[in-house]
Amino acid sequence: FVDGDGDFVFNASEMGQLETNDKEGRDVMIQIPAVSWLENEGDQTVGAATKALLPDPVARIQLDDFVSKHVRQGSERIKSENFPIPNSFVKEQFEQRVHDYENAIADLQIISVLLARWANADQAFLLEKIFSRLGELERPGGGLTVYLGLSWYPVHLLLYSAGIAALSVRKFEILRSIFLAPIRIEHRTGL
């Protein structure tokens, strides 16, 4: 029933396709795809847009939206369906996968480095958001160990990049928030 009083209406047709959860009280994680309706950055690079939003306290909502949009896009790019676990190890295929992961998170890497270097204490939660969301992505549960471990490479690369940026300016609290970003355990598979 929609009577125009602010009811939130959405299409839940995919809910019927979800796996049933035999354990009562356990949530089922639903991935939300990246949205394209957020404002377009135009010709501005990701770095330039981040730099423009960071120092402006009035732009904190836009910065949050900007980071959230890129987290969704990065999550969509590195989801396990895009990186299926092969049956055998091939060096060239492994190298290509590393390169593909790096390309998939390139924008997030720029954002993470700039946030780690320039964010103030009120903006540190944005870095936590990046690492929490990427850490909670569904990982493959079986297959070759080398590829299972590699599924964590995007997170490790961002941790390294942002960590170096934070250390370069002695922002130990930012580094602490990066390493202690909360990740729900039930989503940590493929370790």
Descriptors:
single chain, 191 residues, mainly alpha, 8 helices, 50% helix, 0% strand
Protein architecture, described:
The protein has 191 residues and is mostly helical. It has 8 helices and no strands. The termini are far apart.
Pattern of helices and strands: HHHHHHHH
Helix/strand/pairing category: mainly alpha
Tell me the number of helical segments per DSSP (H or I, 4 or more residues long). Answer: 8
Gross morphology is globular
Rg, Å, rounded: 18 Å
The fraction of residues in strands falls at: under 5%
Spans of at least 5 consecutive residues whose pLDDT stays below 50 are 35-39, 187-191
Q: How many runs of DSSP E, i.e. beta strands? A: 0
Q: Gap between N and C termini, in Å?
A: 45 Å
Question: How does the major sheet shape up?
Answer: none
Average pLDDT, all residues: 82
Helix content: 40-55%
Offer a quick outline of the entry.
The protein has helices at 46-53, 60-78, 91-104, 106-118, 124-135, 145-150, 153-168, 172-179.
List the helices and strands and how they pair.
Elements lengths: L45 H8 L6 H19 L12 H14 L1 H13 L5 H12 L9 H6 L2 H16 L3 H8 L12
Helix pairs in contact: 1-4, 2-5, 4-5, 4-7, 5-8, 7-8
